[in-house]
Prior knowledge:
The chain is α/β, with parallel strands linked by helices. The chain has helices spanning 15-20, 39-44, 51-63, 69-79, 107-125, 138-146, 188-199, 202-208, 218-221, 225-235, 253-263, 310-319, 323-327, 335-349, 355-366, 389-396, 404-409, 425-437; strands at residues 3-5, 12-13, 30-32, 85-90, 93-97, 129-134, 153-160, 179-184, 210-211, 243-246, 270-274, 279-281, 287-289, 328-331, 376-381. The strands form 4 sheets. A 6-stranded mixed beta sheet has the order 4-5-15-10-11-14.
Amino acid sequence: MRFVSTRNADNIVGFKEAVTKPVTADGGLYVPYAADDLRRWILYADENTSFSSLAGALTSALINEEFSPIICETIATRAFRTDPVLRKLDDNLFIFELYHGDTGTFKDYGVAYLTSALETILQLHGEKSILLDVTTGELGACMSKALKDKKLLKSVLVAPKGKFRGLSEEDFAWNGGNIFPVEVDGTEEDCHDLVRSIFSDRELIEKYNLTVANTANIGRLLPQAFFYTYAFSRLKKQVSGDIYYALSAGNYGNLVSGLYGWQLSLPVNGFIVPASKEIQCDPVGRCVVMDGMIPVEQRKPIDPSDPSNVERLENVFKANSLMLHSFVFPAEVSQEDKNSACRELFKKYHVYADSDTSAAYAAALKRSEICEDDGCVVIVARDDPFMDKDFLKHNLGEIPEAPANVKAAFSPADCPRPAIKPGDREALISVLNSLNLLRIF
Length: 441
């Protein structure tokens, strides 16, 4: 599989280039250049196939022109230690839980795959790389777990003062770990501004071999397409009709990855999402992508510190224009709709549903006309419900017990280094430089 920029059809690269240098000079995002037919791999998998085995097979099928099957299997095996969980709620309704990884969030899978792929690539080519990202929550904990035992990959995480979570002293680069936390005495936007300023300088990107762990990196996004293939391996003996996934939009990464799964020949009939400012309904209920009204040449470059995947969404629809109206089904969901959906899921199925999962279920209820009698809806639950305990307490009067891994992921972490000032670009550059000067990787 090769990848092409959303802003330049001549900018075509391989997997290595796409994941090690995801910030394109033309300001776009890398997307698959062409869709491969993976039907035989998808149909071969069944309820006994582990997520790591499935991911290894699909990775090998996708990037076999660059890497051997053994290397592809190694990437997936080292990345995934737990499987997502698909649960049947009734004959036509399932819930797909993506939060059974190390820290209780779907991000565990994408970050683990990306870092495993990067470490393997760097080892093959004798290179080193630095991940530079902003975090205000679970990304730090994800990175802590994913970077264990990595030798060629370091992470510089930037956060507002007092916002680091899930890190321990052994994670810090000066103690032999892989993470250099940088606190900013300011807001989250101040942190994004600092990271943007670094990525706006191509010389700095090349000097420190910088990349990102967020979904601007296709290597973080691509493994999320494996979610839907894994779900299908569990569904195919239980469902004879259409399959629809209901999910919260977020930054559209899970939606885009689901559409990539469809392009790879995954049996799926559509995706139901709560409407947002970017994805809305026209007067007759058809999907409209609002950003699509602005030509890409008139847009600002994609923000590598805080990306949206809307442009990737547009790219899929550009190649398949009819799919916009026949494959993505938005629904207007109010706060009361989410509250009601949360209560209904608990009363009917004893499911603790966070705000995003409740919104997905509410959207599915509103678009029930699209699913025939023998079809099913799969609600995608991205994060452990405890992460949204205030929402649950408000609607249910109780909250689930927090798993130990989730408690650890949200435990405050002290950063022993002084916070830098907003806009202090040189201070951040000195951190990047110190990773080389201290020879800590």
